[in-house]
Amino acid sequence: MPGKSVKVVVAAVVAAGALAGCGGQTRVGTAALVGGDRITVSSLDQTVRDWRGQFKDDPVANQIRANSSGLAPGLGDQESETDMQGALSLLVNFRVADRVARRAGVSVPEGLADRTTALMDQRGGAGSITLASGLPRSRARDLARFIATQTAVMQKFGADLNNAQSPLTVQAAQQWGELFQRTADGMHIKINPRFGRYDAAKVDIGPVVYDLSSAETGTSER
């Protein structure tokens, strides 16, 4: 995957330094704050290290990732900030999805998560799919629950789950996306500038946006 430009990397280092020295709303060692829930840099580091160790030895995960990204299978020699961004995006989105379900008045029973896991197992293996997404196998249940949550919410919005191209399904997917964005916006998500900025519209953490406010607070808030 392409790396960040030198300019952005320097900005990230400066911003991270501001985070370490500030007494703002996030504590030192915080990767993200999501509705008051803290994801630490140390836990994110361990998550990505676990992922890399498992991913390199899983040919199915490598192939799934290559097919979905258009990149050749395999890893570089060093952990990249892109890997960290991808993992953190998912960890943030898991938390947002739980709030979305509550706002939609939808419960996600364990049975639905079980069925989602079983479906993932039929389509390459839940562990391998989770690795291909950028998280270690231990997060397979979290990924299954995220998928199950989207399924349950879209079903409430009228989706035809047997026809992904149905106008009802397309409309439900749009409603899910809009509710997800509104929910994320209301959760005041803060990302350590080292990792970038959360974009709810893209459901992802993008490149660092370095400006005066982020330098002063040590956070990048959506």
From TrEMBL:
| Signal peptide range | 1-20
Keywords (alphabetical) are: Signal
Q: Which domain of life is it from?
A: Bacteria
Protein known as = Lipoprotein
Q: Specify the species.
A: Actinomadura nitritigenes
